[in-house]
Amino acid sequence: MLLNRHFFKPRTVSSNLKTIKMKRLISIFLMMFFTTISFGQVSNETDKTLIKNLVIESFDEIWSKLNSKNIDNYFTKDFLLLENGEVWNNDSIANYLDNAILRKPNPNRMNTIEIIEIKVANGMAWVAYQNYATFTIDNKIIRKAHWLESATAILTENGWKLEMLHSTRIKNE
Questions:
Q1: What is the C-alpha to C-alpha distance for residues 165 and 153, in angstroms, rounded to an integer?
Q2: pLDDT value at position 79?
Q3: Is the domain 51-170 a CATH 3.90.850.10 member?
Q4: How far from each other are the two terminal CA atoms of the chain, in whole angstroms?
Q5: Looking at CB atoms within 10 Å, which of 31, 47, 80, 115 has the fewest?
Q6: Starting from the edge strand earliest in sequence, which strands make up the sheet with 75-83, in order?
Q7: Given this model, what pLDDT does residue 49 score?
Q8: What is the pLDDT of residue 38?
Q9: What residue ranges do the domains of the chain occupy?
Q10: Distance between CA 16 and CA 87 in Å, rounded?
Q11: Handedness of CA 88, 120, 150, 135 (dihedral sign)
């Protein structure tokens, strides 16, 4: 029985090497592509956690402690707070805090932040959240407050900082 040479045409070594190299190249490209995508997702989730912590810590370290020295740790130099028709900047906030710490007795402020949404892109972020504060003196509640707030943050060389905060007071029920 004779075999037809054209039917069983052997592949050349050169052709096999090209195929192997192409498969490796495609594999490497796909690994890099999916690694980049997954890294971007991890980075975005990390940034969201940092933004959430930034909001919570800023209220604890600035407003609960009435500590104007902590402003630079959490707010940009041109930070604005828009609350109840008033515009506050770092100087007016520091002035308020420095006067409030002198009033005695100082109530203890406990904050509860409930994040609604955080969006992060290109070194900028915005966050929407419910802000609840309970004020106590000698372990007795003297006041509760609730705000619906949104804030913007930017990534600085020192990490994330709040750039603007808008606050709407929710009336107690």
A1: 9
A2: 98
A3: no
A4: 98
A5: 31
A6: 86-88, 75-83, 159-170, 140-156, 124-137, 108-121
A7: 95
A8: 44
A9: 51-170
A10: 71
A11: negative
* pLDDT in single tens digits along all 173 residues of the chain: 555 555 555 555 566 667 777 777 777 766 666 555 444 445 778 999 999 999 999 999 999 999 999 999 999 999 999 998 999 999 999 999 999 999 999 999 999 999 999 999 999 999 999 999 999 999 999 999 999 999 999 999 999 999 999 999 998 75
Whose CA is closest to 162, among 135, 127, 137, 138?
Answer: 127
| CB neighbourhood size of 29 (10 A) | 10
C-alpha gyration radius of the chain: 29
Structure-token pair, residue 153: 């943050």
Euclidean distance between CA atoms 87 and 13, whole angstroms: 76
Distance between CA atoms of 39 and 54, rounded to whole angstroms?
22
> In angstroms, rounded to a whole number, what is the distance separating the alpha carbons of residues 146 and 162?
20
18 Cβ contact partners less than 8 Å away, ≥ 6 residues apart: none
82/89 Cα distance (integer angstroms): 9
125: β partners: 120, 153
pTM higher than 0.85:
no
